[in-house]
Amino acid sequence: DNGISKIIKTSGNRTNFPFDGDQVYIHFIGKTIDGTIFENIREKSSFSFILGSPEEPIKGFNYAIKSMKKGEISTLTIRAKYAYGSVGNGDLVPPNATCIYEIELISFNNNCDISTEKDGSILKKF
After folding, report:
1. Residue 60 contacts by C-beta under 8 Å, 6 or more apart in sequence?
2. Rounded CA gap, 101 and 92, in Å?
3. Which residue of 29, 73, 77, 87 shows the fewest CB atoms closer than 10 Å?
């Protein structure tokens, strides 16, 4: 639905991609469409979260990061539907705003519990 577009700036160095349930570590800079930076994780240490979890930063990260390889740096244009929606993000991102992110996938875990029971009986490994 053209809600997310991606331009690869630097290709990644592996052939596998992260999946839901993987712990991912990223650097990113978030901007509004006019170029105003609202968050810069590059100035801090890396940011991590479980891909596909309800606590992920925005829905667009889930889709985009699953298409990235370790070491890849991409510029993502994420429409409001996949970013902060009609609510926005306080004073940082207005309602219905398209956001631009430059994301670097630093790393992700190579083990993921894919068992139905989430009991570690089936792990994906690379």
Report:
1. 3, 4, 76, 78, 82, 83, 99, 101
2. 14
3. 87
34-73 pLDDT, tens digit per residue, is 999 999 998 778 899 989 888 888 999 999 999 999 999 9
Domains of the chain: 4-109 (3.10.50.40)
SS (H, E, C) the chain: CCCEEEEEEECCCCCCCCCCCCEEEEEEEEEECCCCEEEEHHHCCCEEEECCCCCCCCHHHHHHHCCCCCCCEEEEEECHHHCCCCCCECCCECCCCCEEEEEEEEEECCEEECCCCCCCCCEEEC
Instruction: Supply the pTM of this predicted model.
Output: 0.82
